[in-house]
Design brief:
With 519 residues, the chain is an alpha/beta fold. It contains 15 helices and 20 strands. The chain binds succinic acid.
Length: 519
């Protein structure tokens, strides 16, 4: 493999955590690996809700931390929850200073939305459902203007270079498929997103398929909480892949869930009805779908025509799907949305491998537990991007004088076979989805093994199968139901709450022999 050395800090990914960390590292030179043109293809830009932060004087970081703990079903680290929620306000002010046009009231205060399982309206938003897009617009502009940041657009990280427990750089290839190059670097920050796209039904952008978690796992990093995958209850069920999101903020405004018989089913299931924790609502939606009752989100009474101006992303998705939300309820399904699990980090974003840090959805910091509280995802990415940047800067001490990296043009090579990726996504939805059991998880692992064996020399596919293996193996090992992890064969929640920590080698030990596809 061709090799290059740089003094630049390598950031894998180009979403909110990556951009914010690059700005926090300035003037230290950074090389950012971005598969798409900057600002495109990252989950962050698709985030509709916003950033959770106690901005109202009547609210408090402690109340926000308490809600985070409650939603997380026993496995949130209370110190991490207190730290993240206490830092939230400063990041909202920083993003405002960077040009994010958060919605403001006449008195200048932030307009705050209510989302599920929050005891207070505390989600800072932009034009209803535009928070992710607008925050990313501001950060992309700032990153483009930062002389210290070199962005390698059209390149994809496919692996980590490592030696005896230390990460020494990254392996990259052209995003459309090519031979890999090895870039040796003083530090690597993984900020390459989550794993939702490993499932056939997902709200995540097409490239977000667990690759970043997988490459860390293949290098030997400890992966925490892999079994906890959050399913969003109101993905618009219109046959699109990925499925567009109908933000939870709509339910915060009073939109109701009904089925094709016109029954409002959430009120019977939880005292908070539509604003019950996300895992509860997702399971209810899934049950309605499985029963053929076609769940729908009815925004008509709560919003009427206001949905068109106040929630432009939802309105546009409905228009593309031929749904008129002013006159019709929106068909919805539970879709893989956010991975609470990921690369285990300490409070400064340090992974178990020297030289490797992680922030954003790829990381598992202990904030989300078994069920992430709505709009805590972008918040966690901001907090840990800054903390990881400070930690890297502290460890590297001096600012390296690094010239931009000249990346040679590698020869073309095949990327993952799309048919295998489709099989993998089906296997995950069928075997490691909203409701799980031991036979289904074991079969899922065997199917993953067969998919991996069909293209064993493709690192981008191996990254996906590594993460899929970790999710299914951790789910098999957790013999209880907790938060987003629901086992039909172990419906009880055990009294002792614990986080899971697993290496890929340990997960592979649970994987049965490959099972050929029969359908
Ligand atoms: C939503 O807007 O419903 C999603 C927000 C989030 O995932 O936190």
């Amino acid at each position: 493999m061709q090799g290059i050395a740089t003094g630049r800090i390598v950031i894998v990914g180009a979403g909110l955590g990556a951009l914010y960390a690059a700005l926090m590292l300035a003037p230290r030179p950074v090389l950012m690996i971005s598969p798409e043109p900057l600002g495109q293809g990252a989950s962050s830009a698709w985030a509709q809700g916003g950033v959770a932060a106690a901005m109202d004087p009547a609210d408090s970081a402690d109340a926000h931390a308490a809600d985070t703990l409650r939603a997380g079903a026993g496995t949130v680290d209370p110190d991490i929850a207190r730290m993240v929620t206490a830092e939230a306000r400063a990041h909202i002010l920083k993003l405002t200073g960077l040009g994010t046009p958060f919605d403001r009231a006449a008195d200048g205060g932030y307009v705050l939305s209510r989302e599920a399982a929050h005891s207070f309206a505390r989600v800072v938003r932009v034009k209803g459902d535009q928070a992710g897009a607008e925050i990313m617009r501001a950060l992309v502009a700032a990153t483009r203007a930062a002389a210290s940041v070199q962005v390698a657009e059209g390149w994809l990280a496919t692996g980590l270079a490592h030696d005896t427990g230390r990460v020494t750089g990254v392996e990259v290839a052209r995003a459309e498929g090519s031979a890999a190059l090895r870039i040796t670097a003083p530090a690597v920050l993984l900020a390459g997103g989550g794993s939702g796209g490993l499932y056939a039904l997902t709200t995540n952008p097409p490239r977000i398929r667990g690759q970043a978690v997988g490459m860390a796992a293949r290098a030997g990093a400890v992966i925490a909480d892999a079994e906890f995958v959050q399913f969003h209850p109101t993905a618009i069920d219109c046959g699109a892949d990925p499925a567009p999101l109908a933000t939870e903020a709509l339910r915060g405004e009073g939109a109701q869930l009904v089925n094709r018989l016109g029954q409002r089913f959430m009120a019977d299931l939880h005292p908070d009805a539509e604003l019950a924790p996300r895992d509860v609502v997702a399971r209810a939606i899934y049950a309605q779908t499985q029963a053929g009752l076609r769940p729908m989100l009815d925004t008509r009474a709560a919003l009427g025509p206001r949905i068109l101006a106040d929630f432009p992303a939802v309105a546009q998705a409905c228009a593309l799907a031929g749904i008129d939300p002013v006159t019709q309820p929106i068909p919805v399904a539970a879709a893989a949305h956010y991975h609470m699990g990921g690369v285990a980090t300490d409070a400064d974003g340090r992974s178990s491998l020297a030289g490797l840090w992680a922030c954003g959805e790829v990381a598992s910091t202990g904030l989300h537990g078994a069920n992430r509280l709505a709009s805590n995802g972008l918040l966690e990415a901001l907090v840990y991007a800054r903390r990881a940047a400070l930690s890297i800067a502290g460890e590297l001490c001096a600012i390296p004088d690094a010239a931009p990296v000249a990346l040679p043009d590698p020869p073309p090579a095949a990327g993952p076979d799309p048919a295998l990726v489709a099989r993998l996504r089906r296997a995950m939805t069928e075997g490691a989805g909203v409701i799980r059991d031991a036979p289904g998880l074991s079969r899922c692992l065997a199917r993953i093994a067969a998919i991996e064996a069909a293209q064993p020399d493709c690192p981008a596919l191996l990254n996906m199968t590594a993460t899929a293996t970790l999710i299914a193996a951790a789910a098999l090992m957790r013999r209880e139901s907790r938060g987003a992890h629901c086992r039909s064969d172990f419906p009880e929640t055990l009294p002792q709450a614990r986080r899971s920590r697993l290496t890929l080698a340990e997960a592979l030990a649970l994987r049965p022999a490959p099972e050929p596809e029969t359908t």
